[in-house]
Write a structure and sequence with these properties.
This is Peptidase M15. One of its GO terms (molecular function) is peptidase activity. It comes from Xylanimonas protaetiae. 44% of the residues are buried. The protein is built from ten helices and six strands. The chain has one domain: Muramoyl-pentapeptide Carboxypeptidase, domain 2 (2-Layer Sandwich). The chain is of the alpha+beta class. A hairpin with a 7-residue loop joins β1 and β2.
């Protein structure tokens, strides 16, 4: 029996994929020292519990490269709550990363950008509660992504993704490249018209709530970069949802990531 979904929210079938994907051989992942932004995620976790949301240059490697989606990796990093509740000097994370993780004092003393890392998105308040309907978010409910000009997300999702991008940049020397983020209702209609059944019904997409991104081919086509995001994105609340994975309830859509804490406030994570 399928799980009921509130009116106006996307069904499993409606949140289907939008573009094809091919496979390539798996390449090794290069791990470097990084530390989740505990202070930032602490604020996000508090907002997640206390303020429910109302319904409503490329990475190294060719952007034309084939995708590593045969990996079908389940996120192996800690949950957002795990990161928040863990001791800052020894956060629980994937073994390969944990072995190289520095303590907080060393990172703060060594990094001239430490203040920015504690507040990766100054001026964006993660405590803002979204009350607008799908596709009608206000300027106060959205934040620009500084590493991806022209793209926006809901406030908490934007702060978390910016922190994830900081860690990604430390690892690969490049920002996470996107092709989609928040979609107004008008844009959802445009996407539906151009992509037909491959696009979600306007007014039901998680893009319309500022809780979803689509990765560019320069990321999904880079095995190491994509594998790193799958393994570590969950520590920041960002995951490829089960319905979009191989064998899931929707079309195979490995480039689509959602901010799980926000999604789980309005529907089930499936």
């Amino acid at each position: 029996m399928s799980t009921p979904v509130a009116a106006g929210l996307p069904s499993r079938a409606e949140r289907a994929g939008r573009e094809p994907a091919t496979e390539r051989a798996e390449e090794p992942v290069r791990h470097r020292a990084w530390l989740p932004r505990v202070a930032v995620l602490g604020a996000l976790a508090a907002a997640t519990i206390a303020a429910p949301m109302a319904p409503g240059g490329p990475v190294v490697g060719s952007g034309n490269g084939t995708s590593p989606f045969a990996l079908d990796l389940a996120p192996s990093g800690p949950s957002t709550l795990d990161v928040v509740t863990a001791r800052a000097a020894a956060p629980k994370m994937a073994p390969g990363i944990m072995a190289a993780a520095p303590d907080v004092s060393r990172e703060v003393s060594a990094a001239s950008r430490s203040e920015d890392r504690d507040d990766p998105l100054p001026g964006c308040d993660p405590n803002v509660t979204v009350t607008s309907t799908n596709g009608h978010l206000t300027d106060a409910e959205l934040c620009d992504l500084p590493f991806a000009p022209g793209y926006q997300l809901s406030t908490r999702a934007a702060v978390a993704l910016t922190a994830l991008n900081d860690a990604f940049r430390d690892e690969f020397g490049q920002d996470i490249a996107l092709v989609d983020s928040y979609r107004s209702l008008g844009r959802q209609y445009s996407v539906k018209e151009s992509r037909g059944y491959l696009a979600a019904k306007p007014g039901t997409s998680m893009h319309g709530l500022g809780l979803a991104i689509d990765l560019a081919g320069s990321v999904t086509g880079n095995t190491a970069a994509y594998k790193w995001l799958v393994q570590n994105g969950a520590a920041y609340g960002w995951e490829n949802p089960p319905w979009a994975r191989r064998g899931g309830q929707g079309n195979y859509e490995p480039w689509h990531f959602e901010f799980r804490p926000g999604v789980e406030q309005i529907t089930t994570w499936h």
